[in-house]
Amino acid sequence: MAENRLGDEAGAVEKADAAIGPPPDGGFVGWLQVVLTHIVFLNTWGVANGYGIFQQYYTQALGESASNISWVGSVQIFLLFLVGVVAGRLTDGGYFRIVFALGVFLQLLGIFMTSLCTKYWQIFLTQGICLGLGNGCTFVPSLAILSQYFKKYRAVAVGLAAAGGAVGGLVYPVLVNWLIFKDGLGFPWTLRVMGFVVFATYIPCLIGYRPRLPPRKTGPWIDMTAFKELPFIFFTMSMFLNFWGLYFAFFFLGTFARDQIGMAEPIHLLMILNGVGVVGRIVPNIVADKWTGSFNILIPLSFSASILVYSWAAVDSLGGLYAFSIIYGLIAAALQALFPAVSTTMTPDPNRTGTRVGMIMGFVSFANLTGPAICGALINNQNGDYLGAQMFAASSILLGAIMALAARTARTGFTFLTKV
To answer: Transmembrane segments in this chain: where (predicted)?
Structure first.
């Protein structure tokens, strides 16, 4: 009987998809979803990628260790991913607008309440937990809606949207740095200005998003059939390991430049790291759609990222640090953009995209929670030396690259010239 019910559900899905037609791969409404998702990336990943400026400010203003301060950013990204398990399934079930509006409210509440904070635990609750919950309620649902409109050009669409993460990672740190350190506006009003920017940019998103597929009211919150698919399992493990080490540079590059190189204004490195990410998020996805496929370009980029972080241990000059920031910023941005693009292909049923993407995000969230904190603890235990943290981050990314290769092989076999 269970098999009959599953068969009936699958048949109903196929009939519904046939009635609606295939993804338009463009059109006004389709490209509008790309623009709106670009804004969501700007206000979620952009804020997360720019946490390095807060890492610097809080270590000075609060007198807390780098490891403790990194927990705020780690929890924020952790919840961005973890909440996707629930938010993705609710989106598949037809509750996109409610979930998305709740996410916007929580993001704004977190930012404005952070402006009132003076102690570490208060910032942890507002900027870490509240803002993180809001990020999760907006990010995965918006990505699920975008994927409904594209198939052939999905990687390009996701890449253009993901470029918002680089734009936000450039805009928000510059805004915070200027208002606090240059203009003298102070921390409370700087956060309020940031909140007003987030609110204004979300207005078109609240109006313009258009779910294309009918809601899937039945079905489990966790798609257990995914755990029978080796490509899904290996890919999820790969992204866990990748993100375990990937954010080390985004969190600690500024403090490394200040403490190890003696750089007066590390904000310039963070601007470069995030600024080049605009190109890094778009170009590889165009290459992937036109020639290689997303999987085929993700694997060598993962290996390249691990080699770069290993090489970071030998950097002892300002010029070398600038070079590292440029190259790593390009590669890390490409991995961040290819990750959701490949994640949306980890299901044969488009109606389960939100659920499957949410499951992957849920697993990867624990890497984002623990990775930067482990790196911070290693730095503290080595009396401010970064070598142990660099080796941990680089080795994690390397293992992730190996698992990505296993996922690709499980999907297509040893036919390495196949576009996938």
So the answer is: 69-88, 95-114, 120-146, 158-181, 187-209, 230-254, 266-283, 295-315, 321-339, 360-380, 386-407
Query: What are the backbone dihedrals phi and psi of residue 25, each rounded to the nearest 5 degrees, phi first?
Result: 55, 40
Provide φ and ψ at 26, rounded to 5°.
145, -145
Q: So what's the pLDDT on residue 2?
A: 34
Query: Measured between alpha carbons, how far is residue 235 from residues 224, 229, 363 in Å?
Result: 16, 10, 11
Taking CA atoms, 122 is separated from 41, 89, 128, 155, in Å, by: 25, 31, 9, 39
The number of distinct structural domains making up the chain is 1
Residue 380: DSSP 8-state: H
More confident residue, 397 or 2: 397
Helices 154-177 and 51-61, interaxial angle, to 10°?
30
Q: By C-alpha distance, which of 311, 317, 327, 337 is closest to 156?
A: 337
CA–CA dist 22, 18 (Å, integer): 7
CATH code at 265?
A: 1.20.1250.20
Q: Does a structural domain hold residue 399? A: yes
Q: Can you tell me the distance from the alpha carbon of 403 to that of 420, in angstroms, rounded to the nearest whole number?
A: 16
Q: Say if 189 falls within a structural domain.
A: yes
For residue 386, CA distances in Å to 35, 54, 75 come to 39, 19, 22
Mean pLDDT value across the chain: 89
Cα–Cα distance measured from residue 410 to residue 401, given in angstroms and rounded to the nearest whole number: 14
Asked, for residue 331, whether it belongs to a domain, the answer is: yes
Domain extent for 379: 21-210+225-412
CA 241 to the chain's CA centroid: 14
Contact 88, 354 (CB under 8 A): yes
pLDDT in tens, 135-194: 999 998 998 899 899 988 888 898 899 899 989 988 999 999 999 888 889 999 999 999
Global pTM reads 0.83
**What are the distances in angstroms from CA 56 to CA 177, 255, 270, 420?**
10, 6, 11, 41
